[in-house]
Each structure stands twice: as C-alpha cells, then as structure tokens.
TrEMBL record:
Cellular component annotations (GO), alphabetically ordered: plasma membrane
Membrane topology, record value: Multi-pass membrane protein
Protein name: Carbohydrate ABC transporter permease
Origin species: Alkalicoccobacillus porphyridii
Domain ABC transmembrane type-1 residue range list: 75-276
Keywords, comma-separated and alphabetical: Cell membrane, Membrane, Transmembrane, Transmembrane helix, Transport
Listed PANTHER family: ABC TRANSPORTER PERMEASE PROTEIN MG189-RELATED-RELATED, POLYGALACTURONAN_RHAMNOGALACTURONAN TRANSPORT SYSTEM PERMEASE PROTEIN YTCP
Principal location: membrane
InterPro entries listed in its UniProt record: MetI-like, MetI-like_sf
Pfam family, any one: BPD_transp_1
Intracellular or extracellular location(s): Cell membrane
GO biological process: transmembrane transport
Annotated transmembrane regions: 14-35, 79-98, 110-129, 141-162, 183-208, 258-277
Top-level taxon in the UniProt lineage: Bacteria
Amino acid sequence: MSFVTTKKMTTGDWINYGCLILISAISIFPFLYVFSVSFTDPEVYVPLGFYLFPEKWSLDAYFYILQTNSFINALKSTVYVTFVGTILNVVVSFSMAYALTKKNMPGRKYILGIVIFTLVFNAGIVPNYLLIRELNLINSYWALILMALTNGWSIIVIKSFMDSLPPELEEAAKIDGANDMGVFLRIIIPLSMPAIAAFTLFFAVAHWNTYFNALVYLTDSSKWTLQVLVKTLVIDSDSNSMNTGGGGDESVVPQETIRMASIVLSMLPILVVYPFLQKYFAKGVMLGSVKG
C-alpha cells in the first residue's frame, strides 16, 4: 500500500505564486483593453477611457475594417507571403539540413562553416537593400520571401535532429533499393513531422509578423502587409489611409476602436493556429520508429 504525500506550501512558494499571478495579470491587461475597445459600441465609447469589458458590445469597427480596400489588400498580401514563404522555408531548410548530414557530400565542411558564419555575422541593411535592388525585387513580394528563405539557426537545429535519428533506418531503406531522395521522402520526412510542425509554426509566425522588410522593400501601399498597415493606423494615427470599398462611414466609428480592431484581426490567425500545433512540440519524434 502506497501513500501519496503532498508538499506543504511554504511562505516562499506563496510569494513566488503571487508574483507570477501578478505578472500574468499585468501581461493580460493590455490584451483585455485592446479586445474591449475593439468590441465597444461607438455610441458609448468615451475617448481616453479605460475599458476592461465593453459597456455595450458592437462589431461596427470590424464591419468597417473588413469593408476597406486597404485592409483586404494587406490581408491578401500577408496571407500570400506567409503561405508561399512558409512552404519554401520548410522545403529549403529540411532539404539543406538533410544534405549536411551526409559526411561524404563534397564541400560539406565549407558549406557548414558558411552556415555557422551567418549565426555570428550579418551583411547589414544597406548591402541587403542593394542586393534586392540589383535583383529588381523592389516592390515585389519575393523580396520578403527570398530574404527569409532560411536561416543558420534553423538549419543547425534541424541537422542536429536528423543526426539523432537511428542510422539503421536509412541503411535498411537503402538495402531495399531506396536512394537518398527516397530515404528523405519516405523515412526522414515521416519521422520529422513533429519538427516540421514546430518549424512551420515558427516560419509562419515570422512571415505573418513581417514588418521592417515590408516597410523597406514594398513602396506601393496597396502591397503593404498587415503589420505595416497596423503601424500606420496605430502609430501614425492615419485611419484615413483605409479607403472604404463602398461601405461604412468613418465618422460613425471612432478611430480608436478601428485601431484596436485592426490589431485584433492581425493577431487572431496566429492565436487560432497555436493551440492546434502546440501538441507537436512535446511529442516524441522517435515514437514507434525503433523498437528493441
């Protein structure tokens, strides 16, 4: 018969938990304020007022934003860059990482050295801009996608993960007649699904939050991403830049509720995706692959 003993809470434990609760509450309050203002009815909205919960709920700000050409164009741009960029990120990063696991690959040490070199040194803003300009990619979505095609940290982490896979699996596949591409597609990729899910989320969040590159390389406001548009609305206080598409009257909807609603809409997709991919972070990548 076993007895379960519980640890008695000490004064230090109560202090730690109290501090964590306080920090969590302080972190949540800004989000509550943004959500509350965005859902507040324009008729009861008071400028410079603090709202934790709307006095009267309304979706007027969201209806107005979703009828504007600027927001729709920014949403399309962001979705395109995120979708295409994430797919290319995963393909390039995992393919290159797998190639670097091959010790007999010509020039492997030099390529790996270049990858590690990028972890320490960066060309800088001006050389990157000159490169994009010479490639005629100014005001092109490909300037955002190619600039973030992969990075040294992702390649090193993925390579280390692939190095941990049992070599017996690859040897068995080659005995059955599979080549390197077959091993990669039929053995490595299925075993790497948790890692692929995790890095897909990392890449997607990075593309969705693209701001500086979009601000520098996209000169046409109709190609702006959501983050640039939100910056224009919130920091520059330029709600007039949101041209309506035949509906809505900005004089009815306060600018503050428009700003807060645009913030909510820009971060909502990532908040929705996170819970569905979170389970892959803790999932064992070797589960069921090798049994002793």
